[in-house]
Every structure is written in C-alpha cells, then in structure tokens.
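If your schedule permits, I should be very grateful for your opinion on a structural question. What I wish to show you is a protein chain and, alongside it, a tokenised description of its three-dimensional fold. Would you kindly read the sequence against the tokens and tell me how you understand this chain to fold? Here, with my thanks, is the record as I have it:

===
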Amino acid sequence: MPLLSKIFFTVTLLLFTTGWPGPLPAKSPAPENCAARPFDQGRLWKVSKDGIPTNYVFGTMHSKDPRILHLPGIVMQAFTGAGTAIFETSLRDNDIARSRALMLLPTGDSLRARLGDARFGRLLGIAERYGLTADTLDRFKIWAAAAVISQPPPDPATGQPLTLLDKELEKSALQTGKRVLALESNDEQLAIFDAMPETVQIEYLDQAISENPRLNEELETLTSHYLAGRTGWIACDLEETLKTASPDLDRVMTEELIDKRNRRMVERMLPELAKGNAFVGIGALHLPGAEGVLFLLRKHGFSIERKY
C-alpha cells in the first residue's frame, strides 16, 4: 500500500480538518508474513496501574467510512465511562485560516515555477477534482499539494471535507461534559511537513501523483486490516513501502511522524493517565511496536491489556 495514505489515515489527521485533504509512497506487495511485534493486534487497550482508575487507549483511523464511524459496544462503553477524553489535536485549535496560511507559499512565489510546467500540469489534472483552480494550486507549498491529492476529494454532494471518527468523538465528549485535551497543536503537526527539504517534498509529491488513481482501492485494503485490528500489519506494510523511499523520506515518515511523536504524546498523556479514567484516541499506527505508545506506557509501569 502507498506509504503516505497509511501515514495520513492512521497517524496524523490535521490535514483532514483544514478543508484541504492529507499523503502516499511507491507501491509494494502487501507483506503476508510480518514479524510479530508488541501490541500488533487490537484497537482498544486497557491501560491500568494499581490505585488508579482504569484508562483506555483506542487506535483510530482518520476516515469517514461508516464501518469505522460505527464503533463496537465495548469501545463506546470505554468512551462513555471516561471523565477525560484525549485526542491528537482538538477542534478548539482549528484556526483553519492560520493552518491554511502555513500551507501556502510566500506572496510572489509560485508552485508552477518550483515544479516546472510538466509536473505542475500532471498535478493540476488531479487537483481540479478537489475543486482547486490553477491559480489557487500555484500558491500551495509542494508538501501541501501532495497532501491534498493523497486523500479522497470532499463529498461531492456537499463540497465539505469528510466526517472523521476522531472529530465525532471529540464533539460527543464536549457535548457530554467530559474534559477534552489535545496531545499536539495543529502547528506542531504542520511543522513536520514544512521542515522537509524540497527534494523530499518533490519525491513525496511524485508518489502522491502516481498513487492517486488507486487511492480508493488502497484505502479499502487499509480499512479492512484496521477493522480486523491488524495494526501490526499496517506497520509492517509501511516498513515494506519505505524500502523504496529515499533515506530522507524514510526518516521523516518513521522518526519524525511516528516515533518522535509517540514519545511526545506519551510524555503529555502521562499526567492524565496518572489520574485515571481517561480515554485516549490516537491514530492506530501509533500503537504497535517497540517504539509504539503502548510499549512506552508499559515501560512507565502501566499494565496493558487488549479489550478489542
């Protein structure tokens, strides 16, 4: 499966909420015999420690698919019973105008000039399906243009971005009076992409252009594994895909987008988990592996038990 779609549907969700969709890398065969890794099967995990009310960590997928939005009863029980809900980012941090501004080139700069006419033309042929004109697209930074075409277009019936599980959970938490906290700011997520060298951004864009025609097919594959709780498969598939990427893109997608953020999110959620009765919803690819959130929480003395 393409790298960047895995990253955006299971790791970071900011670009879904700007009104412009999020990324993909080269096609690789689905790994059928992935090596086992810690916490590689399951979406809902009980996180407990003696003397502390039970917490739960739930791996989300940033998608509008009804199968994903319809949560199993045990997940809803864990969510409903929590006094605190913790997510990657918060709707209350959604200064869309500021986020969009970070995705645009400085006045007088041009995406067409940076990409050349041929590459810009290929990109425009796809971007028009997302409601972008040539003039609007010309203002985008390279990574932001790649992000747009790496997710499904807005709903053609409404022209609006697609509903996301994470944001629906946050809305429900706010409506029911839960404390709602975010582990990251929108600016922190955008900064990861904005810091990519231009050569890496172009590699990223070329892959997104190449993979866009197969996006729905690839998303269906990812969805089926997510619904089955096979987060380890998703991580393994990402590793296989990264074998075709440059070392620089590999570093961004693994260390910057996953491992470093895992450590930061754990550091920030620990004070709330120490109080107990919290429900944490984060992208599913943050969960498995020795660098994953669950393994890090276990190192901090929490018992981890799969519930679903």
Summary: The CA atoms of residues 10 and 283 lie 5 Å apart.
